[in-house]
Design brief:
By secondary structure, the protein is of the alpha/beta class. The chain has nine helices and 14 strands. The protein is elongated, with a radius of gyration of 24 Å. One of its GO terms (molecular function) is DNA-binding transcription factor activity.
Length: 305
């Protein structure tokens, strides 16, 4: 038995959920792939997969074996890449995690450019804001907004989010213009945002020259998703304080209008974070460099508008 080939077959079956799809991915006859899995189970003296006529599911032993096998195969691919022509044409799979709003607004529109440069790299993208165990979950890197408190990780600052306050014209028509941030405490309503992981409510912080104002204010609705947050602003539910890139098209179209334009807020840093390692794969290195260039360019351009 070729154990590495059998491990690759098993990993592809788990990831695709199908012997047929895994065989297609590996360009193998289905019978050959099935035989590899059977030989692997015999070698390990345990069942790795439950097979029925409708689906394939992984057993508890199979789930544990999958994580270790995936790590081993990743190391093998990186070793091959470091000693071959893949130095100039990196290949293989990356697993990343990024907040949904950054994925939708910045990363996804630019990915065709990345794949035109590196067609042999494949990316699995998780869209979450949750804390990720990079080593335990076998994730290559995460892209996060805010300060990074885990000093055991490498955090490269790649840009910053600039915020602005805005409201729908229908809201302004009902409530009038906002003259000062303290107006939120009596005459105006904000849309609040809270963390999906900590449930912490964020205040509105405004700065003008030497004056700084933190506003909690009144609100009718609070949300923990960026896209829903912008939708609440569009619906006229209150004033939103939002990253400019998320609402730029609405500002351009006039469906949202800036309020308190002479006030600004502290920008929030964006980092790409990955585990420390003596050997960083070529595919991770080129992705980090590319995404740093992308976010620096994108957030700088939007900050200027």
């Amino acid at each position: 038995m070729d154990q590495l080939a059998a491990m690759r077959a098993f990993v592809r079956v788990v990831e695709s959920g199908s012997f047929t799809r895994a065989a297609d991915i590996l360009a193998l006859p289905k019978a050959t792939l099935s035989k590899q899995i059977q030989q692997l189970e015999t070698h390990l003296s345990t069942r790795l997969l439950h097979r029925t006529t409708r689906q394939v599911t992984v057993t508890p032993d199979g789930a544990a074996y999958y994580e270790r096998a995936l790590a081993i195969l990743t190391d093998v691919d990186e070793l091959d890449g470091s000693l071959s022509t893949n130095l100039t044409c990196p290949r293989g799979r990356l697993r990343i995690d990024i907040s949904p709003s950054l994925a939708t607004g910045i990363l996804m529109p630019a990915l065709p450019d990345f794949f035109s440069r590196y067609p042999e790299i494949h990316i699995d993208i998780g869209c979450t804001d949750r804390p990720v165990d990079l080593v335990g979950e076998n994730v290559d890197c995460v892209i996060r907004v805010g300060e990074i408190r885990n000093s055991s990780l490498i955090a490269r600052r790649i840009g910053e989010l600039n915020f602005a306050a805005a409201a729908a014209p229908s809201y302004i028509a009902r409530h009038g213009e906002i003259q000062h941030p303290k107006d939120f405490e009596k005459d105006h309503v904000m849309v609040r945002y809270f963390s999906a992981t900590t449930a912490h409510y964020y205040a509105f912080d405004f700065i003008r020259d030497a004056e700084e104002v933190e506003v909690l204010g009144r609100y009718s609705v609070a949300l923990n998703d960026g896209n829903a947050y912008v939708s609440a602003g569009l619906a006229g539910l209150g004033v939103i304080l939002c990253p400019i890139f998320m609402m730029q098209e609405h500002l351009d179209a006039g469906t949202l209008v800036r309020v308190l334009p002479e006030w600004h807020t502290q920008p929030m840093p964006i980092h790409v974070v990955y585990p420390p390692s003596r050997h960083i794969s070529n595919r991770l290195r080129v992705f980090v460099d590319w995404v740093a260039e992308l976010f620096a360019r994108s957030t700088r351009a939007r900050a200027a508008t």
